[in-house]
């Protein structure tokens, strides 16, 4: 849909173009006129029993009507149950309908697991391709290439004759400055090639394949329509470019985009089942289950995936969706385990086994890591949003390919000299999580050994750090600074980019440094009172890998503000169930510290930056404004455009549709009565009129349109009338003009409304849409206008139906207020009640 042709659609929550925009010039209001005299009757086109194709569907960038979709589903369910006893075929259809939900989540889980395994294997191979190639089997990565080699030693397990670096292939040198420079050049070449190919595919074939996808999925699950975002082209391109983006070495992860990939699978499979293809609300139940499957295969955490869908992305999560999410996560994890992409017979790459329990004193450094995670999260959100906003407002954002190439080039040039930044980020996290055992050859485990030790045991006592450990700490400090800076500029570029792994890497680096510091402190000062009770000489007291795991959880929690699901994901990810209390302490601390600087997580911040119509249930509305302060039209706006139930012609309605940009119209009884009858959507009116012109004879521009149940009498020579009662919402949600906005916002959140009509004594005054509420919330945040006075003050100041001379006001927002004797008495009673009430 062209945004320029429909710049402001305030009536149904639809037309929430991206970004939200104000319209300074509204459409001209069409003046309604009465029809001809009413003397006789004629035949009507009754559409009550005949469904009109297209009615009830939604345009792109519109919000669904949750209430209408749920009513449609209940009606479909009743119709199927009433017919299932008629024949065996109807019973079969009923069983198929009942099992279709389990079938679609099964297919989604199978596809998600298969694609995740494919992405993991391809990304590992292409990442190693930057360093060299396996001559014996080109499709093997570095580790697989040396598995079957007899020449590889344990200390140098990554070196074997079958694996050749690019320097060995091109210049024939394995060591020396020439070899280093050639490997450096080839590393940069492959990184730029992968990044350029990824951004080019995204730009040409599927622009929606960029980014994490989680902010958009949260918006879609809240009821917003983004055509093509979960389509087959997006799925195909995102799968390919995700491998390329991860292999390029950019500071991003594949875990967030895997949720997008899984939701694409769920959306595509839902079209195979009419129960979900024709109902947008039911389709979102499948997408909630698909997001759980995505996290399940991203981290190997089925339970964490279900909790992630419940806590972070889902807007509507009934109990049956919980069961189906659990089943989809189970199927996806089973498929991934069958593929075994990591070659370790486990679902995850980071599985660790620690042999030392944690002690009470260690809660203090764990909480400090939580503070660091909260500070990192607050800094990252502000810095990344500022950079993304600058990208949108400057010419730099018009050249996405150039931006990706520049970021990839800087990343590759700086990353190669440092072994910890040259590593794949997932491999880096694995090394930081791993405890130092007797068989570890990493420089992080280069401790000075006790020469009196006579046997190899699992629990190695705390030892003094060697030269390798101190060198690794300096390299990790440089890697920490590098990761912090590059992640800010990488998240949001036009390639698939996840945030989970980079945030965990930053936390793991900080945690490992803190863990080594505490370990050395305990070794050299074991007689301090904080160590004396539980850390004896020669005992294994401190596990630096545990600190890395806690730091990773804290930094990820600081960025996303997840709590329960994050703790479950991390202990499923690492197998560290015994350390759930330190994880909980660090995650809660990071959330509290982050919330002190702003309650928004990174996904909510990007939703607000892009202008998506998302009402966050976590936010509290604490202001004192009323519905009359938010409703449209405002005092200086054109009057409210309404339809009458039986006094308008087809031409009248078509003219009103063409001359206004509103996406729906209240239907009233007549110009004299002004009582509310229902609400008709612009799209439904257009489709119904076009359908009637094609299928029915005698429908012309002068045909009377009737929304009432009974047809008024018309002259015999008048054209055939058109009855459109079937498209009328007979029970639109209404509030009075003095309803507090706190209640209105709560209604919109819990019922998923598109619009709500505002009435005064049963007479329509205006309308509030989802977009109006979002604009109002944004104005209150920015303090564009001073906060409204208390509601009782507004109650007395609000213009009554009568003027100071006692005569009824002629019109208010194009609504005639009829002179009613009880009106003034009611107003005086209300004022007296308010004055005598203690507030």
Automatic annotation (TrEMBL):
Q: Where is the composition biased (Acidic residues)?
A: 820-829
Q: Which ranges does the record mark as transmembrane?
A: 99-123, 187-209, 229-250, 257-274, 286-310, 359-381, 401-420, 472-493, 505-526, 546-571
Pfam families in UniProt? CBS (PF00571), Voltage_CLC (PF00654)
Task: Name the keywords, alphabetized.
Answer: Antiport, ATP-binding, CBS domain, Cell membrane, Chloride, Endosome, Glycoprotein, Ion transport, Lysosome, Membrane, Nucleotide-binding, Repeat, Transmembrane, Transmembrane helix, Transport
Query: InterPro entries recorded for this chain?
Result: CBS_dom (IPR000644), CBS_dom_sf (IPR046342), Cl-channel_core (IPR014743), ClC (IPR001807), ClC3 (IPR002245)
Q: Specify the superkingdom.
A: Eukaryota
Q: What does this protein do?
A: Strongly outwardly rectifying, electrogenic H(+)/Cl(-)exchanger which mediates the exchange of chloride ions against protons. The CLC channel family contains both chloride channels and proton-coupled anion transporters that exchange chloride or another anion for protons. The presence of conserved gating glutamate residues is typical for family members that function as antiporters.
Ranges of residues in domain CBS: 631-695, 728-787
Name it: Chloride channel protein
Q: Which family does it belong to?
A: Belongs to the chloride channel (TC 2.A.49) family. ClC-3/CLCN3 subfamily.
Please give the Gene3D superfamilies that the UniProt record associates with this protein.
3.90.1280.20, Clc chloride channel
Give its localization: Cell membrane; Early endosome membrane; Late endosome membrane; Lysosome membrane
Q: Which PROSITE patterns match?
A: CBS
Q: What is the topology of this protein in the membrane according to its UniProt annotation?
A: Multi-pass membrane protein
* Chain spans, region Disordered: 791-839
CDD domains referenced in this protein's UniProt entry, alphabetically: CBS_pair_voltage-gated_CLC_euk_bac, ClC_3_like
Originating organism? Galeopterus variegatus (Malayan flying lemur)
């Amino acid at each position: 849909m062209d945004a320029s042709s429909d710049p402001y659609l305030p009536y149904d929550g639809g037309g929430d173009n991206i970004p939200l925009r104000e319209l300074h010039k509204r459409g001209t209001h069409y003046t309604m006129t009465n029809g001809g005299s009413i003397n006789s009757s004629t035949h009507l086109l009754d559409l009550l029993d005949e469904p009109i194709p297209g009615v009830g569907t939604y345009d792109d960038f519109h919000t669904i009507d949750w209430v209408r979709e749920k009513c449609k589903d209940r009606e479909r369910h009743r119709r199927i149950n009433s017919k299932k006893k008629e024949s065996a075929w109807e019973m079969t259809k009923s069983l198929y309908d009942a099992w279709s939900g389990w079938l679609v989540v099964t297919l989604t889980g199978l596809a998600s697991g298969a694609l995740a395994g494919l992405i993991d294997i391809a990304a590992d191979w292409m990442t190693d391709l930057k360093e060299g190639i396996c001559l014996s089997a080109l499709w093997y990565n570095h580790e697989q290439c040396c598995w079957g080699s007899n020449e590889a030693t344990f200390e140098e397990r990554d070196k074997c004759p079958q694996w050749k670096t690019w320097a060995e292939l091109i210049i024939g040198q394995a060591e020396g400055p020439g070899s280093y420079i050639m490997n450096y050049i080839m590393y940069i070449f492959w990184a730029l090639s992968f990044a350029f190919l990824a951004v080019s595919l995204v730009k040409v074939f599927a622009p929606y394949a960029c980014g994490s996808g989680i902010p958009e999925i949260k918006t879609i699950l809240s009821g917003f329509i983004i055509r093509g975002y979960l389509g087959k082209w997006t799925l195909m391109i995102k799968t390919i470019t995700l491998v390329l983006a991860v292999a390029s070495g950019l500071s991003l992860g594949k875990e967030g985009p895997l949720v997008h990939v899984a939701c694409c699978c769920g959306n595509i499979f839902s079209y195979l089942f009419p129960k979900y293809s024709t109902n947008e609300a039911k389709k979102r139940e499948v997408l909630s289950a698909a997001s759980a499957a995505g996290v399940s295969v991203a981290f190997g955490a089925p339970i964490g995936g279900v909790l992630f869908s419940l806590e972070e992305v889902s807007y509507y999560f009934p109990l049956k969706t919980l069961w189906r999410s659990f089943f989809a996560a189970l199927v996806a994890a089973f498929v991934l385990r069958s593929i075994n992409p990591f070659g370790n017979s486990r679902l995850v790459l980071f599985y660790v086994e620690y042999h030392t329990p944690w002690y009470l004193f260690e809660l203090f450094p764990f909480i400090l890591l939580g503070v660091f995670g909260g500070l990192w999260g607050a800094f990252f959100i502000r810095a990344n949003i500022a950079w993304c906003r600058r990208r949108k407002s400057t010419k730099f954002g018009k050249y996405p390919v150039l931006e990706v190439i520049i970021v990839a080039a800087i990343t590759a040039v700086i990353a190669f000299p440092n072994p910890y930044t040259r590593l794949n980020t997932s491999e880096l996290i694995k090394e930081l999580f791993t405890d130092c055992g007797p068989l570890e050859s990493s420089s992080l485990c280069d401790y000075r050994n006790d020469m009196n030790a006579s046997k190899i045991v699992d629990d190695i006592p705390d030892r003094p750090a060697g030269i390798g450990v101190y060198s690794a700490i300096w390299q990790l400090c440089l890697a920490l600074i590098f990761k912090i800076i590059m992640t800010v500029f990488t998240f949001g570029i036009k390639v698939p980019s996840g945030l989970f792994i980079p945030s965990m890497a930053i936390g793991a680096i900080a945690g490992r440094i803190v863990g080594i510091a505490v370990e050395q402190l305990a070794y050299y000062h074991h007689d301090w009172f904080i160590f004396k009770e539980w850390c004896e000489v020669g005992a294994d007291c401190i596990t630096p890998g545990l600190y890395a795991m806690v730091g990773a959880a804290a930094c990820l929690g600081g960025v996303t503000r997840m709590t329960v699901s994050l703790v479950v994901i991390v202990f499923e990810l690492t197998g560290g169930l015994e350390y759930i209390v330190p994880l909980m302490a660090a995650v809660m601390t990071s959330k509290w510290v982050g919330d002190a600087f702003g309650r928004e997580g990174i996904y909510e911040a990007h939703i607000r930056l892009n202008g998506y119509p998302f009402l966050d249930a976590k936010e509290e509305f604490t202001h004192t404004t009323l519905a009359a302060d938010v409703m449209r039209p405002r005092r200086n706006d054109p009057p409210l455009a309404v339809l009458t139930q039986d006094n308008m012609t087809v031409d009248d309605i078509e003219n009103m549709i063409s001359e206004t940009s509103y996406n729906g119209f209240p239907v009233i009884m007549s110009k004299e009565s002004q009582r509310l009858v229902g609400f008709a959507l612009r799209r439904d009116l257009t489709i119904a009129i076009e359908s009637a012109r094609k299928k029915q004879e005698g429908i012309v521009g002068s045909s009377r349109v009737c929304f009432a149940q009974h047809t008024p009498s018309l002259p015999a020579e008048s054209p055939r009338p058109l009855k459109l009662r079937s498209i009328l919402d007979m029970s639109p949600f209404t509030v009075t003009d003095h309803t507090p906005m706190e209640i209105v916002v709560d209604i919109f959140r819990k019922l998923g409304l598109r619009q709500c009509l505002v009435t005064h004594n049963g007479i329509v005054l205006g309308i509030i849409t989802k977009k109006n509420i979002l604009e109002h919330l944004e104005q209150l945040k920015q303090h564009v206008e001073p906060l409204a006075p208390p509601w009782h003050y507004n109650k007395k100041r609000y213009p009554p139906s009568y003027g100071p001379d006692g005569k009824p006001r002629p019109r208010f927002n194009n609504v005639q207020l009829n002179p009613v004797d009880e009106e003034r008495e009611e107003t005086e009673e209300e004022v007296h009640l308010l004055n005598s009430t203690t507030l």
